């Protein structure tokens, strides 16, 4: 069986991801269309929240990816710091804009949902606040990559930033458990509280979550390919200038 | 179209904003991927020609 470290070779990574990408993108599109159409058109209103419950099909999956996207960046950053594989540093860089977009979607849909339900767009609630800080970390991470010319130095510094930001990624997930206060409810789905969301909402929500995960993977693969090619181009241009 | 009642604006805005952001991200990622691939091909061709 092939070792996972084979994919640290940029050429091998490009070959394999080229083969996987079309299927992954198609699967993401199918799951998203099925999940969102099902959730929007074929689920009933909630007895308390009315039709706003339909926002759950965007809010929960995007929040899931916002948090886990950062954790994926953390793993990739640790691989870079320990084993110095360029592909892993570039994968972390590629994932950041995707995670940032998901964080924006979670924050915006949360605000739009919160207004009619809580009577306010925003509250300095532990989960909302830690999510906002996570978004600022995403922006800082993207800006740091853009600000440093040397790729290896940028990878080192952004990896450290990623380690620090992981505290807020975890806080975003567990804030409601640490501080039993604030407007935001507990987790909509959890291993020990499977009946938090009624089945009629639960199944299309799972389909949407699977669709968001596939979309994240497809976009990260595509963007990592782009980062690998951009890095090679910078190296060739530098060689051209030297000769 | 389902009956969304008094929350129609909130629900529709959420879907519009989210789908727009997702489509924008996917479109930008594809556009940049094509642009970088084409630029790299040019640089590689030039490097081959000049040995």
From TrEMBL, chain A:
Q: Which GO terms describe its molecular function?
A: heme binding; heme transmembrane transporter activity
- The portions of this protein that span the membrane are 20-43, 55-82, 94-116, 128-148, 160-180, 200-222
User: What are the protein's UniProt keywords?
Assistant: Cell inner membrane, Cell membrane, Cytochrome c-type biogenesis, Membrane, Transmembrane, Transmembrane helix, Transport
| Cytochrome c assembly protein domain boundaries | 19-184
Q: Which InterPro entries match?
A: Cyt_c_assembly, Cyt_c_biogenesis_CcmC, Cyt_c_biogenesis_CcsA/CcmC
Where it sits in the cell: the answer is: Cell inner membrane; Membrane
Instruction: Extract one GO BP annotation from the record.
Output: cytochrome complex assembly
Q: What domain of life is recorded for the organism?
A: Bacteria
GO CC terms for this protein?
Answer: plasma membrane
Give the way it sits in the membrane.
Answer: Multi-pass membrane protein
Q: Name one Pfam family in it.
A: Cytochrom_C_asm
Briefly state the protein's biological role. Required for the export of heme to the periplasm for the biogenesis of c-type cytochromes.
The family note in this entry says: Belongs to the CcmC/CycZ/HelC family.
The entry's protein name is Heme exporter protein C
Q: Which organism is it from?
A: Pseudooceanicola sediminis
Automatic annotation (TrEMBL), chain B:
Q: Which GO terms describe its biological process?
A: cytochrome complex assembly; heme transport
Source species, please?
A: Pseudooceanicola sediminis
Q: Where in the cell is it found?
A: Cell inner membrane
Membrane topology recorded in Swiss-Prot or TrEMBL: Single-pass membrane protein
Protein name (record):
Heme exporter protein D
Q: What does this protein do?
A: Required for the export of heme to the periplasm for the biogenesis of c-type cytochromes.
Its family remark reads: Belongs to the CcmD/CycX/HelD family.
Gene Ontology CC terms: plasma membrane
